[in-house]
Design goal:
Helices cover about 20% and strands about 40% of the residues. The protein is of the alpha+beta class. The longest helix has 22 residues.
Length: about 180
């Protein structure tokens, strides 16, 4: 008696204006640029089938099912980033000492934070763009991980240690994801 092959299959539609190339890595190209990502997973096959990206796993275990969903989300984020992009809006908040925020050579420099003499810095990752407009900081780009990590770096640079956070609320905080 022949045993049936159990296959878990997920499909991701490829929108117009987006081109996908699958070799050892998945390369997604759109009007805003190109993103590449390597998914080293033996149990999951990534194929291209008439306008869709197909993810397949034969005899999937619990870990394979979870990884299939993760890879699907990563590829979806690559497609969304190249069609719409990711934008995070942050707000500069201070009570007494006015802070000065500047962008300089791949870093965000925060001066006069809580009256400190030495500036604090936050790293900007890869092609992420940071704009400062008054008391707003706008972080945007096509790679969701890089945009999110840059935003987190800015937020962490203004973290206050050793003081009551209910009283000392100065910092740069995420307000909106666009």
């Amino acid at each position: 008696m022949a045993q049936a092959v159990v296959i878990l299959r997920e499909e991701i539609p490829i929108p117009e204006g987006i081109e996908v190339t699958i070799t050892d890595e998945v390369a997604v190209t759109g009007s805003k640029g190109e993103l590449k990502r390597n998914f080293k997973q033996r149990a999951i096959k990534i194929l291209k089938d008439d306008g869709n990206i197909v993810l397949e796993a034969q005899f999937p275990k619990k870990r394979d099912k979870a990884m299939l969903g993760t890879i699907k989300s990563h590829i979806n984020n690559m497609i969304i980033g190249l069609t719409d992009g990711f934008t995070y809006k942050m707000k500069i908040v201070y009570a007494h000492f006015p802070m000065t925020v500047k962008v300089n050579e791949g870093k965000v420099i925060i001066e006069n934070f809580l009256g400190e003499r030495h500036p604090r810095t936050a790293k900007i990752l890869s092609d992420t763009k940071v704009q400062i407009k008054g008391d707003e900081v706008i972080v945007s780009g096509v790679n969701k991980e890089d945009v999110g990590q840059t935003m987190a770096n800015i937020e962490q640079a203004t973290k206050i240690k050793g003081r009551d956070p209910r009283v000392f609320q100065d910092g740069i905080y995420l307000v909106e994801k666009l």
